[in-house]
Amino acid sequence: AQSFVSYSFQDEFSTLNTNINGTHYILSAIKDFSPKTKLYFAGSSEMFGNSIDSDGFQRLGTPMNPTSPYGCSKVLAYNLVNHYRNAYDLHTCNGILFNHESPRRGTNFVTNKVVKGAVEIKKGLKKNLVLGNLDSSRDWGHSYDYVRAMHLILNNHEPRDWIVSTGETRTVRQLCDYVFSQLGLNYKDFIKQDKKYIRPEELNYLKGDSSEIREKLGWRPTYSFERMIDEMIHNWNSKL
After folding, report:
1. 70 has catalytic annotation
2. Is 202 assigned a catalytic role?
3. Which of 24, 176, 191, 205 is 20 to 30 A from 225 via CA?
């Protein structure tokens, strides 16, 4: 897939072609040649856009109104997965995973961009860090936990859709504050904002309700936000 939201604004065509047609080709091949194959589709919290239920959560019944070409591509592919499951009795599953991070995350994603940049500043390798919207909120979990969820989803006897999330949300500003404070710095002294990192249509807030997968499949995240970020800080401290 084309997995970087910001790039989808630069090249909508390849994002839509890859994410929609790529998924469709695989579904069609399973239907025609290997109907016993199980398929897990990587859905995304970006599919919800700025739709939020009255209690501040997003869940399976929340309307999907994406705010990026990436989110649009994921909604169509998500519906294709459901269509093939219902029409052809295939074991096709959707996992709607909220943001998940680790030391392996690309530095074009904001978590690792902030962590790497802060460590570089601490070590005197750069003077500041340039970001976009500091007040957008995300539900960040650890990839280790979310891959465990993928395995549970795919191996559940019933193919269906699930939300995977921590149920907690933090702003990019809070992320910066925590990372820089762990390094003995004040983020306000080093963060600069540039409009080029602001999305044409902002996604302001994400917080997922993962109660179903917790109750029915016994999934629980093992990483806290702080432990996850500390692991990422340690990674860059050891590399730079």
Report:
1. yes
2. no
3. 191
